[in-house]
Design brief:
Blueprint (H helix, E strand, L loop, with lengths): L2 H4 L13 E2 L2 E2 L6 E4 L6 H13 L3 E3 L8 E4 L4 H9 L10 E4 H10 L46 H16 L3 H15 L19 H13 L3 H7 L2 H10 L6 H9 L5 H6 L7 H8 L1 H4 L3 E2 H16 L5 E5 L1 H4 L4 E2 L2 E7 L5 H14 L3 E7 L20 E10 L17 E10 L5 H9 L2 H15 L1 E3 L4 E3 L4 E2 L5 H7 L13
Helix pairs in contact: 5-6, 5-7, 9-10, 14-16
Bound molecules: uridine 5'-triphosphate and manganese (II) ion (MN).
Amino acid sequence: MFHATIEPCVRKRSKPASVTVNRHEVKFQEVRLYLVERKMGASRRGFLTQLARSKGFIVDDILSDDITHVVSEDSRASSLWEWLKGCGLKSLSKMQVLHISWFTDSMRAGRPAAVEDRHLIQDTLPASPESSILAPVAAISQYACQRRTSTDNKNKIFTDAFEVLAENYEFSEMKSSSVSFRRAASVLKSLSWAVKCMGATQGLPCLGEHTKTVMEEIIQSGHSFQVEKILSSERYQTLKLFTSVFGVGPKTAERWYRMGLRSFSDVLAEPDIQLNRMQQSGFLHYGDISRAVTKAEAQALGNIIDEAVHMITSDCIVALTGGFRRGKEIGHDVDYIVTTAEVGKEECVLLHVINCFKKQGIVLYCDYQPSTFHISKLPCQKYDAMDYFAKCFLILRLEASQVDGGLNCTEGDNRGWRAVRLDLVSPPMDRYAFALLGWTGSTQFDRDMRRFARMEKRMILDNHTLYDKTKREFLAASTEEDIFAHLGLEYIEPWQRNA
Ligand code: UTP
Ligand code: MN
């Protein structure tokens, strides 16, 4: 039912081309025109259509792959080409895209004029998947690790909707439906162009019936009714609110919801609820840690870690990972790897760093988890499981004076500091590349790289190692490039992993 308003963009050939159109005799079977309405206007378009038909030309009202000549009055090539490329045509590369002057020349001559350079509206857009038109989007892999995805998401209107649906399925513990929507979102994020009509989704992987219905709704009306319904539901709003607290996962949120609790004050006033230490800190610092962390703040934390580490050794690595390494401007927390060249000493370094923080009086919360790493546990088959490295989940006090350009604060806040979430992980140096890859993410990128390894290469990849099941051996890697190479994948830079 949504097709009526979407289809004008592209329609597959439905009926064989009729020989007469509007009772005019067709003289030029091999030429099929489409007049672009933009700039031309509907009434002039109607007039020119009748004129051409009266002279024996075929003029279609709908742009399809059967069209041979596209005629436009709009000479701004980039907007015309952007629109054409969003139409999902397979044979765009074979079409002549022409200025109205070709049309008037043809009408004057009473036959299709020879196409000259001055008639052409040249494609000035940078190459995009649609410009390799013969196989328009077939080249897009179902695996995020074979796509390049920057932070510049051209399809946010769809991916935001998919993420609400995915989250809602997660709240209902429907993992596979949730993953389907995350995969679909991830595919759309990798496109260098915005989807403007359903035709443009032909050949894109991972878009199922349900995702397409949602996209159709959005293309037609600007929003999805299903998504609006979820967003306005009490259950979704409450679970979203509760899980925004550090230490509260979907299960706890659901339990509280079932107890009839709907707000933070409900939770805090409920005598039957015993908050754990993590949740207590979550509520205590809620205002600060639910506010985005900026790149400058992440950098400031890096300086603080650097200082602490260099007090004991110069042979160490402090590496920013997580979303900031992927080029994101803001994050929900900051992730750093801290390790040292000497295998086995990394845990000491981490403990030392934590101690330094404590001495400075900046630790607001600290959950240290010692290493449970042992080679005999590998390869780890549970590919979504946590890793075994020593790590520490922290909330730190960050002073405004330490941050270039100051803190990300709410207006009127003059404390001069804020609380920030920091995760530190300490893999042994020989595991560094795997840990860096895993902690850089995105989660969806990692998930697909593991799936690719398993399904396509009979290998098991996780945050610790890469295991070849055919050769029955572990494959060593000292850089991320090594890991991609073992898997036969082209290297994808961190800022291209925003799947
Ligand atoms: P984050 O949850 O911090 O995500 O985990 P992010 O991409 O940095 O996004 P924001 O900006 O903070 O919201 C970073 C990566 O670390 C991995 C996650 O899977 C993710 O890819 N990770 C996290 C682990 O591998 N192990 C952990 O114990 C925690
Ligand atoms: Mn992060």
